[in-house]
């Protein structure tokens, strides 16, 4: 059982995954990337030729979803049916359909149950869990809850630097479209009561990691 749960939410490109993983590494915590599970399910649907716009077909897949992920930040991986698909889930073709998979309520319920199980089972002294609805739905009682934000401009610039195979304009459109679709399902743009906002627009990666660690340290209840 992980004693300290740190919940981190935010929009695409705010730095959630990279910052949370590095902060977990430095704190000796486990790391749970919930977006990876939605992406892996979307990848699996594409791989199996499942129509992602058909909620029943997607639901059928989630019931038999053989998902595994590494929660050690130094041994991060994503596997479906034993196949390592860690880089594949970041492909634009997966990003383009992941929101359709993620808006099915029963899919969310099923994955949320899995996330809570993974959080509870991990032996590390703490775990950083990041996604869109961690501070509000998955772990609303977490002792530290953070909303990581950044301006749309900064988020597009960061994502473009990672996706070199397409124009910045295409990346910008995809990011805005995904945020729009996702925000119909959960609100990850405003901090819920008790959630600490952390704006990374004008600070670099290292400063954001430090800010997250400082927030965790000051938020942990002391004996
Ligand atoms: O890294 P990026 O912010 O681009 O996306 P991600 O965190 O890998 O999440 C991929 C997708 O999964 C999101 O666009 C959402 O559709 C979905 N997601 C979700 O619905 N709820 C979560 N807790 C995490 C991700
Ligand atoms: O998971 P999410 O989509 O929120 O973002 P990410 O994939 O962790 O971060 C996107 C990129 O932004 C990564 O290459 C980070 O290194 C970078 N980043 C940055 O340049 N400055 C920050 N303050 C935070 C992240």
TrEMBL record:
Keyword set includes Chaperone: no
Methyltransferase found in the keyword field: no
InterPro entries reported in the protein's UniProt record: Cytidylate_kin, Cytidylate_kinase_dom, P-loop_NTPase
Gene transcribed to yield this protein: cmk
EC numbers: 2.7.4.25
Species: Microcella alkaliphila
Family (UniProt): Belongs to the cytidylate kinase family. Type 1 subfamily.
Reaction catalysis annotation: dCMP + ATP = dCDP + ADP; CMP + ATP = CDP + ADP
GO-annotated cellular components: cytoplasm
Positions in coiled-coil regions: none
Molecular-function GO terms, alphabetical: ATP binding; CMP kinase activity; dCMP kinase activity
Residues that hold ATP according to the record: 10-18
Principal place of residence: cytoplasm
Keyword entries, A-Z: ATP-binding, Cytoplasm, Kinase, Nucleotide-binding, Transferase
Localization per record: Cytoplasm
Every Cytidylate kinase domain range: 6-217
Designated name of the protein: Cytidylate kinase
Gene Ontology terms describing biological process: pyrimidine nucleotide metabolic process
């Amino acid at each position: 059982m992980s004693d300290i749960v740190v919940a981190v939410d935010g929009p695409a490109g705010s730095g959630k995954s990279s910052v949370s993983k590095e902060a977990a590494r430095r704190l000796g915590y486990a790391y749970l990337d919930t977006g990876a599970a939605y992406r892996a399910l979307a990848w699996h649907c594409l791989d199996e030729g499942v129509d992602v716009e058909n909620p029943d077909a997607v639901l059928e897949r989630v019931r038999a979803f053989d998902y595994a992920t590494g929660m050690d930040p130094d041994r991060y991986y994503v596997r479906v049916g034993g196949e390592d698909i860690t880089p594949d889930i970041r492909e634009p073709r997966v990003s383009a359909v992941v929101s359709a998979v993620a808006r099915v309520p029963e899919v969310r319920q099923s994955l949320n149950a899995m996330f809570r199980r993974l959080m509870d089972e991990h032996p590390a002294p703490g775990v950083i869990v990041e996604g869109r609805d961690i501070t509000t739905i998955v772990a609303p009682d977490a002792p530290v809850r953070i909303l990581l934000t950044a301006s749309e401009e900064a988020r597009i610039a960061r994502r473009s630097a990672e996706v070199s195979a397409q124009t910045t304009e295409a990346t910008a459109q995809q990011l805005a479209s995904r945020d729009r679709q996702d925000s119909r399902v959960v609100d990850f743009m405003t901090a819920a009561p008790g959630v600490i906002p952390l704006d990374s627009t004008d600070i670099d990666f290292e400063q954001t990691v430090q800010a997250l660690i400082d927030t965790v340290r000051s938020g942990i209840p002391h004996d």
